[in-house]
Amino acid sequence: MRSFLTALQFLTRIHIVSQKDLTMADFGRSTKFFPLVGAVLGAIYLLAALLLYVLFGLQGYTIKAVLVLLPILLTGGLHCDGFMDTVDGLFSGRSRERMLDIMKDSRTGSFGVVAFGAMLLLNWSLLMDLPVPVLLIAVFVMPIIGRMAMLFAVAYFPYARPEGMGRAFAEMADRKAVLIGLVTALLFTAPWGLAALAALLLSLLWAYVLGRWAEKKLGGLTGDVYGAVELTTETAVLAAFYLFAFLPFDRSALFLWM
Questions:
Q1: How far is CA 203 from CA 116, 230, 233, 249, in A?
Q2: What pTM does this model have?
Q3: Residue (of 185, 186, 130, 142) closest to 45 by Cα position
Q4: First to last CA, the chain
Q5: CA 8 – CA 13 distance, rounded (Å)
Q6: Is the predicted pLDDT of residue 238 greater than 80, yes or no?
Q7: What is the secondary structure of 80-109 as a DSSP string?
Q8: Residue 187 backbone zone (phi > 0: left; psi -120 to 50: alpha; other: beta)
Q9: Are 31 and 7 spatial neighbours (Cβ–Cβ below 8 Å)?
Q10: What is the per-residue pLDDT across 8-66, written as a single tens digit (0 to 9) for each?
Q11: How many Cβ atoms from other residues are within 10 Å of residue 249's Cβ?
Q12: Cβ-defined contacts of 206-213 (< 8 Å, 24+)
């Protein structure tokens, strides 16, 4: 329970108990619960979407904007900051050392701001185009798969810096943690059908491709790259559901609850 609460309170703004005596090892041990934290967030997103559907329907522009902004509010923009820092560094065209310095800088550059704005627009557009039943499934599994992809990246790739909180995650995320996280992700995604399982598989593939590219640039991954993996994976999940929703197949074969 301690490790789960550590993961929940680190990755979100949901603070239940005071944890003032946490060590780096405590943060590291919490990685196996990342997908479970995603399930908590997914349940909140789903409940919010259902409430909005009952009150206003889900066809309006503003409603979809609320669903785009809700993850930012509940996570405090944690992964958004990592995504923007990663874009600033990796697309700077500088040396490895300079890229790492840029990513460590608390200021956000123009590359990061433009990329983040484009991602928000893409997420909003995908939600606008998804049929309502598919949208409800997508908003639930999206944070679960995103955090499973992040756990995979943490465990699979080396850490680029000699120190930092991300190193504690990388050192403690072993095969057992990945297995626990994967079982959790499967338990919460498999009941939704083949489309959700395919989105999970494609997202892990995306996490590998992005992680491998970042590793070649930086010699490893950083906490910012972990955030970028999570955030871009959520967008990849929405894109996968968009693709599956409009394939010329019987939707009941892809989405068990339709």
A1: 19, 10, 6, 22
A2: 0.93
A3: 142
A4: 35
A5: 8
A6: yes
A7: HHHHHHHHHHHTS---HHHHHHHHH-SS--
A8: alpha
A9: yes
A10: 999 999 988 887 777 777 777 889 999 999 999 999 999 999 998 888 877 788 889 99
A11: 11
A12: 206/149, 206/232, 206/233, 206/236, 207/149, 207/150, 207/152, 207/153, 207/233, 208/152, 208/156, 210/153, 211/153, 211/156, 211/157, 212/157, 213/90
* pLDDT single digits (tens) 137-174: 999 999 999 999 999 999 999 998 877 777 777 877 88
Q: How confident is the model at residue 255 (pLDDT cuts 50, 70, 90)?
A: low
Long-range pairs, 1-9, Cβ under 8 A, ≥24: 2/26, 3/29, 3/30, 3/32, 3/33, 4/30, 4/33, 4/36, 4/37, 6/30, 7/31, 7/33, 7/34, 7/36, 7/37, 8/33, 8/37, 8/40
79 residue type, one letter? H
| Residue whose pair of structure tokens reads 């000699």 in the numeric block | 162
Beta strand spans in the chain (E): none
Instruction: Characterize 136-152 residue by residue with b for buried, 16 or more Cβ atoms within 10 angstroms of its Cβ, and e for exposed.
Output: bbbbbbbbbbbbbbbbb
Q: Count H helices, E strands: the chain? A: 13, 0
The token pair that represents 15 in the structure block = 């603070």
The pLDDT tens digits of the residues spanning 65-103 come to: 999 999 999 999 989 999 999 999 999 888 889 999 999
Angstrom distance (rounded) from CA 58 to CA 54: 9
Side chain identity at 188, as an amino acid letter? F
Angle at 17 between CA 227 and CA 8, to 5 degrees: 25
